[in-house]
Amino acid sequence: MPLVCKYWHELYRSQDASPLHETLELNFRKEVERASAREWGQEEDDEEDWALRHPGYASRLISWAADYPIHGSRVISWAERRAGSVRKLHFEGGFRGAFEDFSPWDLGRLVTLTGPSLVELRIGRWGFEELRKKRFWKSLRDPVVPARQLRFLVVNDDDGVSESDVEPLGQLAGSLEELALSAYYINASGSAIHGSRLPRFPEFFCALTELRYL
Predict the structure, then answer these.
(1) Contact 177/205 with Cβ under 8 angstroms?
(2) Residue 182 and residue 140: Cα distance in Å, rounded?
(3) How many distinct structural domains can be found in the chain?
(4) Does residue 52 belong to any structural domain of this protein?
C-alpha cells in the first residue's frame, strides 16, 4: 500500500480507514493455548480436540502460561501506530502467568491511546484483578469519557467498582447504550454473589438517556 498511495500514513489514521483496524482483541488464554499447542507440535485449528485426547496438555497450560505471556510493550507499540482507528477494545482473561509482562500501566496506556476513538470497551473476568486498578479508571475518565463516543462498556471486576470510578460515566448521556459492571465474589457467609458491589444505585445512571441495557 505505501507504494501505491503516497499519503498512506494519513489514510491509515483517518476515520475512513477505521475498518482496517477497528477491533483490538487480546485473549490471554487463547495466546497461551496457541503457543503451548505449537510446543506440543499440533495445529492451532484443532487444539481443542487435541487437548481432549491428551489430558496432560490442559494441566500444563497453567505452568506454561508464564513462558508465553502477552508482551505489553508489543501491544502498545501496535496501538501507538494505529491510534485513532481502533473502535473496539476487547480483553479476555486466562491463566495468571500470561500477565507476567502485562502490567496495570499497560492496560491504562492502551485505553489512553485508543480512548478518543473507542465506541466499545469490554473487559472479561479471570486474571484482570491486578490490572484493573485506579490507573484503568483514570484512563477511562480522561481520554475515553470526554470524547463521548463510547456506546458499550462491559467491565467484569472481582473487586467491584466504587462510585467515584463510575461517576464520570454520567457524561456519556448522549452515547452510552450498554453498561455492565459486574463482580463475582464470596460474601461473609461463604455464598457466591454476583453483583456490582456498588453501595447504592447511582442517580446519574438515570441521565443516560440512550441506555438500552444496564
Answers:
(1) no
(2) 17
(3) 1
(4) no
Report yes or no on 5 lying in a domain: no
DSSP-H helix ranges across 18-167: 28-39, 47-53, 55-64, 72-81, 104-114, 134-139, 145-147, 163-166
CA atoms of 186 and 193, how far apart (whole Å):
6
Contact 111, 138 (CB under 8 A): no
CA-based nearest residue to 61, from 92, 90, 46, 39? 39
Would residue 152 count as lying in a domain?
Answer: yes
The pTM (predicted TM-score) of the whole model is 0.76
Q: Measured in whole angstroms, how far is the alpha carbon of residue 146 from the centre of its chain?
A: 19
Crossing angle for the helix pair 28-39 and 55-64, nearest 10 degrees? 120
CA distance 127 to 174: 32
Q: Which residue is it, cell 494505529?
A: 82
What is the per-residue pLDDT across 68-113, written as a single tens digit (0 to 9) for each?
Answer: 677 888 889 888 887 778 889 998 876 666 777 888 888 889 999 9
Looking only at the bridges linking them, the beta strands covering 120-123 and 152-156 are: parallel
Q: What pLDDT is attached to residue 179?
A: 93
Contact 13/112 with Cβ under 8 angstroms? Answer: no
Q: Looking at residue 101, which CATH number applies to its domain?
A: 3.80.10
- Domain interval for residue 111: 21-27+68-207
Is residue 10 one of the residues assigned to a domain?
A: no
What values do phi and psi take at 43, rounded to 5? Answer: -70, 150
Report helix, strand or coil for 153: strand
